[in-house]
Specification:
With 328 residues, this protein is α+β, with helices and mostly antiparallel strands. The protein has one domain (3-327). The chain has 8 helices and 16 strands. A 7-stranded antiparallel β-sheet has the order 8-10-11-16-15-14-13, sandwiched between helices. A hairpin with a 5-residue loop joins β14 (275-283) and β15 (289-297). α1 packs antiparallel against α2 (25-35). The chain starts with a strand and ends with a helix. This is DUF4367 domain-containing protein. The chain crosses the membrane at residues 58-77. Keywords: Membrane, Transmembrane, Transmembrane helix.
Length: 328
């Protein structure tokens, strides 16, 4: 059972892409994919929260925007909630919390250095397990770390095959006449003691520790590729003229989602084909707005996001029509 919190800071990108001098496709794509969404995955343990930061990769970051929403139609005590068929709250909107700086700056810098080396070692699509020698302060569950190197699948046949391999939700090939540009499926992987008890991860940690103990010289990083089949996320980017369409889903694996709400934006909940859908409205000027939609899919236990941006965008009505098609 876990909890996921998401955040985004892409208002400036939307403003740029909607301005008098629209950004070229490559610039919009790079900025949106890098900045649009950063993902924090939090899952609870019996006595404490376990927080894992997964740095956004160019495509994987489209996965989940941190929906800094304001719900002006709701009182402070009546934030939007989405429940499953059993009445359990799966998605909960809450007041935005201030970002706190970590006190472990040195450890974070070391981790970033080791993670960068592991990414350089990885092939596209690979999940790399790595172990850092002489980091005795870390508990056993934290000793083995993971990094995934994004693989942009530019052929829809390859993308759909990867979706079928992992059991992720299938995304369409050409929604609303937009052409498929690329897609990505991201892996789930362990982060706590119970999950680390799986044989694959126990053996991997023991193997890398043994290499570290036998190593001579100054080598500190030990790593290997590990197989994966369980998805954490799936996302796809589409284009039509100067417009872009993004569809993404994050698997919740039995957990729940917390969405922080800022005071500048608006959200309202409606029902589409029997499913609660949140229409998020982001102001990008005195008379311009950007809409993106989010919803919970109980069949996949996944949180979906649909966004349209660029020189041409889908209206709220067309976005809702597309959501209805995706729900069929």
């Amino acid at each position: 059972m876990g909890r996921t919190a998401i955040s985004h800071e892409y208002q400036d990108i939307i403003e740029a892409s909607a301005g008098q001098n629209p950004l070229e496709e490559i610039d919009v794509e790079a900025q949106v994919m890098e900045r649009v969404e950063q993902l924090w995955l939090m899952r609870n343990r019996p006595t404490a929260w376990k927080v894992r930061l997964r740095k956004p990769t160019a495509m994987f970051s489209l996965l989940m925007v941190f929906l800094l929403l304001s719900v002006t139609a709701y009182a402070a005590a009546e934030y939007i909630q989405i429940r499953n068929s059993r009445g359990e709250v799966k998605v909960k909107y809450m007041e935005a919390e201030p970002v706190q700086q970590s006190a472990h700056v040195g450890n974070n810098m070391l981790r970033q250095q080791m993670e960068s080396k592991a990414l350089a070692f990885a092939k596209p699509g690979e999940l790399i397990a790595y172990y850092v020698k002489e980091n005795a302060a870390e508990k056993s569950a934290e000793a083995l770390k993971f990094v995934h190197k994004e693989q942009r699948l530019t052929a829809y046949t390859d993308f759909s095959a990867e979706i079928r391999r992992t059991g992720a939700p299938m995304l369409p090939e050409a929604p609303e006449g937009y052409s498929f540009q690329y897609g990505n499926v991201g892996p789930d992987f362990p982060y706590n003691s119970p999950m680390m008890q799986q044989e694959l991860y126990r053996e991997t940690l023991n193997e890398l520790r043994a290499q570290a103990e036998q190593a001579t010289g100054e080598q500190r990083l030990f790593m290997k590729s590990v197989p994966w089949t369980s998805p954490l996320s799936v996302s796809a980017m589409y284009a039509k003229g100067g417009g872009f369409l993004g569809i993404s889903a994050q698997m919740m694996h039995g957990g729940d989602m917390m969405v922080q709400q800022g005071a500048e934006e608006q959200a309202k909940k409606i029902t589409v084909a029997g499913t609660d859908v949140v229409i998020n409205t982001l102001g990008i000027g005195p008379d311009r707005q950007h809409h993106y939609l989010t919803w919970y899919n109980e069949e996949y236990d996944a949180y979906f996001l649909l966004t349209s941006y660029g020189d041409r965008t889908l209206s709220e009505e067309k976005l809702l029509k597309l959501v209805e098609e995706l729900l069929q």
